[in-house]
Design brief:
Distance between the termini: 67 Å
Low-confidence stretches: 6-10, 17-38
Strand order of the largest sheet: 1-3-2
Strand content: 5-15%
Helix content: 40-55%
Number of helices: 8
Length: 195
C-alpha cells in the first residue's frame, strides 16, 4: 500500500481514489516507455542503414500516432523527414517488415513492409537523388529481394515476395508516371521451378 503522506497532495480525495490515480499514472508511464522502446525497432534500423549508408532512424508509429501525425499524407504508407534524418512508418508497414519470412502476416503485407523500408532508406541516404522519387523507386526495386533476405526471408521466400514488389513498383508508376526512371533496369522475376 502507498503511504498516506505520498497521497496527501490530492486534497479532498479518499485514499482509495488516490491510489487508483497513482496506479493509472504509473501504468501510463510504463506503457509510454514501452511504446518509445518499440518506436525504433533494431532490425528495421539495421536493414535500413545498409541502404541509407548508416544515416537516419526508422520509427514505427502506433496507429493513434500515425492517424494524428500532421506530417503524413492520407495516401502514404510512410514518410521521411530529410532534414531530421528519420523515417516514420505506420503499424501495418512495420508489422509487414518485422515479420518477413513468417506465416503470421500475409505475403502482400510483408512485401509492402520491405518496399517501404527500402524506399524510405534511400530517401535517408545522403546522395544527390534523395529527393528524386524516380531514382529512389528504382533503387527500391533493385534491392527488394536483398532487403527481404536481410529482414529474414529465405532466398525462395524473397523470390515469392518479389512479384508483390513488382506490383507495387508498377502501381507507383501508374499513379505517378513522373516517378519513372527511364534508365532503371528492373531485375526480372523468374517463376519457381517445377519440382
Amino acid at each position: 500500500m502507498i503511504p498516506e503522506r505520498v497521497l496527501s497532495w490530492i486534497v479532498g480525495v479518499s485514499s482509495i481514489a488516490a491510489v487508483c490515480v497513482v496506479l493509472v499514472a504509473i501504468t501510463s508511464v510504463n506503457q509510454a516507455a514501452a511504446a518509445k522502446a518499440g518506436d525504433a525497432p533494431a532490425l528495421l534500423n539495421d536493414v535500413a542503414r545498409v541502404y541509407s549508408l548508416g544515416v537516419g532512424q526508422v520509427r514505427c508509429a502506433s496507429q493513434l500516432e500515425w492517424d494524428t501525425d500532421p506530417h503524413r499524407t492520407r495516401f502514404s504508407w510512410g514518410y521521411t523527414n530529410v532534414r531530421g534524418d528519420y523515417t516514420v512508418l505506420p503499424p501495418m508497414i512495420c508489422a509487414g517488415a518485422m515479420n518477413v519470412g513468417s506465416i503470421s502476416v500475409p505475403a502482400w503485407q510483408q512485401a509492402a513492409g520491405v518496399w517501404m523500408l527500402v524506399h524510405e532508406a534511400f530517401h535517408l541516404r545522403h546522395w544527390r537523388f534523395r529527393r528524386n522519387e524516380a531514382k529512389v523507386g528504382c533503387q527500391t526495386i533493385v534491392y527488394f529481394t536483398d532487403a527481404a533476405a536481410r529482414l529474414g526471408a529465405s532466398d525462395s521466400h524473397a523470390q515469392e515476395l518479389y512479384p508483390y514488389g513488382l506490383a507495387l513498383h508498377d502501381l507507383e508508376l501508374d499513379l505517378y508516371p513522373w516517378h519513372r526512371d527511364p534508365r532503371c533496369v528492373v531485375p526480372p522475376w523468374f517463376p519457381p521451378s517445377a519440382p
